[in-house]
Amino acid sequence: MHELSLCRSIAQIADRARQGRPVAAVHLRVGQLRQVVPETLVYCWGLVTDDGPLAGSRLEVESVPVVLDCRACGETTRVAHVLVLTCAACGSGDIELRTGEEFLVTSLDLGPPADEPAPTPTPTLREQEA
Amino acid sequence: MGRFHRHDDGTVHEHDHEDSHDHSHGEHGDHGHASAADSEHGDHSAYETGTERVEVLERIFGENDLAAAENRTAFDAAGVTVVNLMSSPGAGKTSILERTLEHLQSAGTRAGVVEGDIETSIDADRLAGFGAQISLLNTGDGFGGECHLDAPMVRRALDRLDLDTLDLLMIENVGNLVCPAEFDVGAHRSVMVYSLTEGEEKPLKYPVMFRSCELVLLNKVDLVPYLDADPALFAENLRRVNPTARVIEVSARTGQGLEEWYAWLAEAGVTTVTEGEPVGSGA
Lengths: 130, 283
Ligand SMILES: Nc1nc2c(ncn2[C@@H]2O[C@H](COP(=O)(O)OP(=O)(O)OP(=O)(O)O)[C@@H](O)[C@H]2O)c(=O)[nH]1
Ligand SMILES: [Mg+2]
Ligand SMILES: [Zn+2]
Hints:
The complex is a heterodimer. Chain A is α+β, with helices and mostly antiparallel strands.
C-alpha cells in the first residue's frame, strides 16, 4: 500500500550511493515480516525512477524467511507461515525474532562513470512466498 | 559485513551478511533470491557484465526512523507522553478519543491530538470543544494520500502544537491494519483499537500490526449480545501473535471499560520509557 513511498526512499538511498554512475540494479533484502509485495515494489520502482538518473535500473528483492528463537525452551524455529509466530518445539509465543524484519538496500550494480547511454533492461518480477 | 568476490563467469556474489542470521551460500534459494539473470539462465547481459557491485547496507526506513527519533527527543524535552492509536477504518478511534478528551479535561490533564485523516476534517471537528489542542494532518494533502502517518508528517503536525503546554499527546493514525505498524512516528506507546465486529481472527491475519502494540482496546463490546462474536477467542488469537499485549474491553458508546483505559493512560504518563523498539525500526 505504501510501496510508492518506499520506492522514493530506496531511490534516495540509491542516488546518494551511486557516485554519479549509472545504476543497473538495486539489491534489497526484505524480511518476510515486512508487509511489502515485491511485485508491487518492482512496479512502483518503474514509476518512481521513470525520468530520473535511475531510469531503467532493476530492483532485485532478496526475501529473508522468518526465524525465531524461543525464550522458553531455547529452540530455533524457521517459520513457514508468518501468521503464527510460535516456537515449533514447545508452542511458546515468548519468542525473539532472529530474522524476518530486514528491510535494507544491500548493494548497487553500477556501470562505468562514462556517460554512455545506458540500455534499458526490462524490469523483472520476482517470486513472492506465501 | 558482506564481502564480494568475482567468479570466473564474471558474476559477483556476496558472502557474510551483516546481520546475525548466518547461512551458507547454498541457502540463497531459500531466500528467494532470484532475478532474471540468476534464476532463468546465467546469461548476464552485456551491460550487466560491465557493472560493479557496490555494497550499501542502508536501512530503507532509516530516514523515517531518524525523524521519529527527533520527534521523540522533542516529546521528551517537552515532557509529553505520546500514544499512537492505530486501527482498521471505523474501529472507533475518534469515538474513544472524544470520550477520553472529555475525561482528560475534567481530570486536568492537558491533552493534544494529531489527527491523521486522508481527506477530511470530520474527525478533527468531532474532537473540538474538549479543550485539547488538535492538529489535523490530511495525508491526501501533499503527502500523496498515504495510508499511514510517518515521522516527517507528524513532525510537520507538531508545528501547530505547543508541546510545552501538553502532558499527553495522542496520535490518531490513518485507519489501516497494515501500513501504520511499519512506520515509527516517535510515539512512546502504541495502542490498537479493535472492534468486535471485525472478526476474532484478525490478529492472525495482521500479525505485524498486532505485534506492534502493547495494549488493545477491544471496542464496541456493547454489541456482544447482538453479534455472534467471542471476545475470548479474539484474546486467544491475539496471544498467539503477541503474548504480552494487554486487552481492555471497552465501549465508546456506553462508556464501559473506559475507566480502566484512563487508568492505563495515567500510568503511561508517569512511566513513559523511550525503549521498546517499534516494528518500523527493525533490521
Ligand atoms: N455500537 C458501538 N458503535 C461504536 C462504538 N465506537 C464507535 N462506534 C461507531 O463506529 C463508527 C466508527 O467510529 P469512529 O470513532 O469514527 O471510528 P474511527 O476508528 O475513528 O474511524 P476512521 O478514523 O474512519 O478510521 C461510528 O459510527 C461510531 O458511532 C461502540 O463502542 N459501540
Ligand atoms: Mg477517526
Ligand atoms: Zn520453545
